[in-house]
Amino acid sequence: MDHRSKKSQKRYQSYKQKRDLVYLFFILWALTYPMDFYITLPALILSHLFFKQIEKKMIF
Fold first, then answer.
1. Residues 6+ apart with CB under 8 A from 55
2. How far apart are CA 52 and CA 32, in angstroms?
3. What's the CA gap between 22 and 44, in Å, rounded?
4. pTM
5. How many other CB atoms are found less than 10 A from the CB of residue 11?
6. Euclidean distance between CA atoms 11 and 24, whole angstroms
7. Contact predicate 11/54, CB 8 Å
8. Sign of the CA dihedral 23, 56, 53, 8?
9. Neighbour count for residue 32 (Cβ, 10 Å)
């Protein structure tokens, strides 16, 4: 059972959608331009670490 309010749940769902779109963008970029993998991989790793830090600090 989720203890968050309706507004908080809505904000969290919105955040998750944006996060997933960023991951999808980098994955599609890697598939479209495989020669740029040396750019895509660090960008994907850094965005993942960035989102983990946001999730730790965000209060929904």
1. none
2. 26
3. 9
4. 0.70
5. 15
6. 20
7. no
8. positive
9. 9
